[in-house]
TrEMBL record:
SUPFAM superfamilies: Ribonuclease H-like (SSF53098). This is 3'-5' exoribonuclease Rv2179c-like domain-containing protein. Signal peptide: none annotated. Residues 5-172 form the 3'-5' exoribonuclease Rv2179c-like domain. One of its GO terms (molecular function) is nucleic acid binding. It holds the Pfam family Rv2179c-like.
Length: 185
């Protein structure tokens, strides 16, 4: 059995190292869409990193989300070690799920290797948009949220608070997975 670990990150720039992961949240789901567990952490910024000017200008438009990701800050090394233990404690084999996986996994993987010395996800991540492309039978760029069926979405708002957004994309993925499996009979 696989456990789908829907993960969202909030950052102060486009890449890890020069910029920091400010917070991340994961919601783990069974293949039938049941929530197993959650994890979230707000992190201290990296010592030599600086916020990207464009990203920081965007954060100025999101005061509630900014305040959320700057409270109860944790040391990245301690948070990532706790995260590895949490992922390893989940039932089944963990699968990292994100939208877009290319961004979220980049940060999480970098932080896992840098601070915990390992990734319980190995080198791979499942991208929700790519899965939507396959389910819809369309080109990748056409598999945007605005073109996805409304039935795949819940009424959960996209808040830019990591755990909230991890829930939303996890529910989206589980709905897509269920429909895809029903279609195959």
């Amino acid at each position: 059995m696989e456990t789908y670990v829907s993960t969202d990150v909030e950052t102060d720039g486009p890449i890890p190292g020069p910029h920091s992961m400010l917070s991340f949240g994961s919601a783990a789901f069974t293949p039938d869409g049941k929530l197993v567990s959650t994890f979230e952490a707000n992190l201290h910024t990296l010592p030599d990193a600086v916020g990207d000017p464009k990203t920081m200008a965007w954060w100025e438009t999101q005061p509630e989300a900014w305040a959320e990701c700057r409270r109860d800050l944790r040391d990245p090394a301690a948070a990532m070690a706790d995260y590895v233990a949490w992922v390893k404690g989940l039932p089944g084999k963990p699968v990292f799920v994100a939208y877009p996986a290319g961004f979220d996994f980049l940060f999480v993987y970098w932080y896992l290797i840098r601070f915990a010395g390992e990734s319980p996800f190995s080198f791979s991540a499942l991208d929700v948009k790519t899965f939507a492309m396959a389910v819809l039978g369309c080109e990748y760029r056409a598999a945007s949220k605005r073109n996805m069926p409304k039935r795949w979405f819940t009424d959960r708002p996209h808040t830019h608070k990591a755990l909230d957004d991890a829930f939303g994309q996890g529910e989206l993925f589980c709905n897509m997975l269920a429909e895809s499996r029903r279609a195959k009979g």
